[in-house]
Prior knowledge:
By secondary structure, the protein is an all-alpha fold. The chain has 4 helices and no strands.
Amino acid sequence: MSAYDDASSSSRFGVIFARFISFQIMVMALDALVTWLLVSKAGIPILLGKTIGTLSAAAFAVVYLRQVSVFANNSRFIAVSITLISLLVNYGMFTLLVLRNPILQWPLACGAATTAALLLSGIGYWRVHRFTP
């Protein structure tokens, strides 16, 4: 294996990783947008709005990642798994922040939970590909 193969593999992973992170940002933004629309415009309670937002983002992620051209077969399963886990972490952190600290406004809790979930998904995807042959 030459140095060229290592550089090519590294740059290919960089492109795939950037695509994965941009997909994660898109899913989390969809979750936040649906939550904001339901809570602010429709007057739905915060936790119900967040639940519906998370479920709609999860449905979008699964349907989008089922397309053949998005990721390879192995990467598609990994991307769906990590996306669903990060959405669950996002929902759990949001719920804990809102319930444990009622003074905290929900957009700040949503931002903190989204940031933590994005960090988790990025580290998780990097670790999976680092230890996969």
